[in-house]
């Protein structure tokens, strides 16, 4: 009964380990398919004419008193807007050529590259950790399966030992498959058959012990 309980416990442990292996393999497949995060692009973002106007410093705009009076004429309005856009574009180009701006952009690019590298290293560490967990789980699963096989062989040997020990009370035939019978009346003529059966059972028990020793 104790061996049966151990077998039941090992089977449950094996099922849990198999489930854990499947989960880890699924997570690894997902992590490997997604890959490490791509490095941030170092190219400066493209800015349209519309963005140039919105990003300009308000202090650079002309005072309201110096602005030309907007005419209802559509052509004058378009010319005025075009002038503002061209001025904003020139200011932006001048700002980009500024050494301080270039240093600031270089610093931002360095930070982006560093963050991307840290994220890639983090992903690699996570994948390595999951691989190690999967290896450890598979090794433990192999140990459990080996122990389970030994316990099952031990249980089978115990069952067969009890079976043949009980059948030793009967007389075995020499035919195959073996038939067991109990005489209705004991006599001296049955002694050779008793000895033959005892030898047969002894060989079976020795064979069981040998097999258990090899497991």
From TrEMBL:
Transmembrane segments: none annotated. InterPro entries: Pinin_SDK_MemA. Residues 57-71 have a biased composition (Basic and acidic residues). Pfam families: Pinin_SDK_memA. Keywords: Coiled coil. This is Pinin/SDK/MemA protein domain-containing protein. It comes from Babesia bovis. Residues 113-154 form a coiled coil. Residues 77-193 form the Pinin/SDK/MemA protein domain. The gene is BBOV_III008080. The keyword Coiled coil applies. Residues 27-71 are annotated as: Disordered.
């Amino acid at each position: 009964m104790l061996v049966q309980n151990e077998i039941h416990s090992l089977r449950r442990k094996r099922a849990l380990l198999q489930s854990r292996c499947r989960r880890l393999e699924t997570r690894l497949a997902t992590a490997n398919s997604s890959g490490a995060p791509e490095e941030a692009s170092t190219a400066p973002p493209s800015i349209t004419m519309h963005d140039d106007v919105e990003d300009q410093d308000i202090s650079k705009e002309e005072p309201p008193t110096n602005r030309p009076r907007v005419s209802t004429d559509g052509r004058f309005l378009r010319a005025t807007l075009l002038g503002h856009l061209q001025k904003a574009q020139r200011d932006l180009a001048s700002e980009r050529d500024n050494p301080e701006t270039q240093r600031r952009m270089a610093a931002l690019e360095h930070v982006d590259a560093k963050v991307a590298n840290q994220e890639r290293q983090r992903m690699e560490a996570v994948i390595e950790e999951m691989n190690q967990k999967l290896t450890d789980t598979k090794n433990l699963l192999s140990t459990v399966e080996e122990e389970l096989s030994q316990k099952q062989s031990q249980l089978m040997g115990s069952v067969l030992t009890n079976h043949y020990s009980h059948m030793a009370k009967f007389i075995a035939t020499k035919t195959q498959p073996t038939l067991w019978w109990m005489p209705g009346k004991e006599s001296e003529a049955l002694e050779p058959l008793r000895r033959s059966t005892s030898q047969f059972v002894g060989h079976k028990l020795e064979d069981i012990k040998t097999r258990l020793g090899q497991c």
